Amino acid sequence: MHRIRIGVMCLMMVLILGVSLDAAGQEEAAGQDTDAGEQKLEDMLIPMGVIVIKAHESIEPKRSSVEFDHALHFINDCRICHHKWEGKTQIPLCASAECHDLLKSPKKPTRYLVYTATAILYYKYAYHKMCVGCHKTIKVKRTEMEMSYQVLKEKLPRGGPTGCVECHPKDY
């Protein structure tokens, strides 16, 4: 008999909590002013799987496309990669106007990935600076932490690929 009372009380609490949360959500939605062209973040579609990053259709690629696992990068703030995104609209493509829309390679940067302001407009250099640069930074931080012999409470992130063939596998 005691178990039945506890079960009934739990069901009533869940029902009351559910109704109150639903009412609070409706009040919040009713109070929001969104422009016609603006999209709520909850409604945005976020690609969960592998995104294939390839050269613009007007360019003959020298290497294969890159398979980018978007979900592995969710630990980062979206604006690290999508730096021109203001957080309220759909994320623009990297090769869109006034971002990395230069389709012809400017003067090559140094081998240490030092890019000029013009060179970073070239979509290929932008990807390489962002992706390879971040992966190298993670590897350096991981090595420093491993060499410090500290007891860690959390798992260290792996560094991603930094070599050409690791990202651009040869087509066989």
What does this structure look like?
This protein has 172 residues and is mainly alpha-helical. It contains four helices and two strands. Strands 1-2 form a two-stranded antiparallel sheet. The mean pLDDT is 76.
The biggest sheet, with number of strands, parallel, antiparallel or mixed sense and barrel status, is: 2 strands, antiparallel
List low-confidence stretches. Answer: none
Secondary-structure-based class equals mainly alpha
CATH C-level category:
Alpha Beta
Strands in their spatial order, largest beta sheet: 1-2
- Average the pLDDT over all residues and give the rounded result: 76
- Fill in the CATH topology: Cytochrome C3
SS element count, helices = 4
Number of strands: 2
Q: By CATH's scheme, which homologous superfamily applies?
A: Cytochrome C3
Q: Over all CA atoms, what is the radius of gyration?
A: 24 Å
Global outline: elongated
CATH architecture: Alpha-Beta Complex
Query: Helicity, in percent?
Result: 25-40%
How far apart are the termini?
69 Å
Number of structurally distinct domains: 1
User: What fraction of the residues are assigned to beta strands by DSSP?
Assistant: under 5%
How do the SSEs run, as a string of H and E? HEEHHH
Provide a short characterization of the protein structure.
The protein is mainly α. It contains four helices and two strands.
Q: What secondary-structure arrangement, pairings included, does this model have?
A:
Blueprint: H1 2-31, E1 50-53, E2 66-69, H2 78-81, H3 123-148, H4 164-167
Antiparallel strand pairs: 1-2
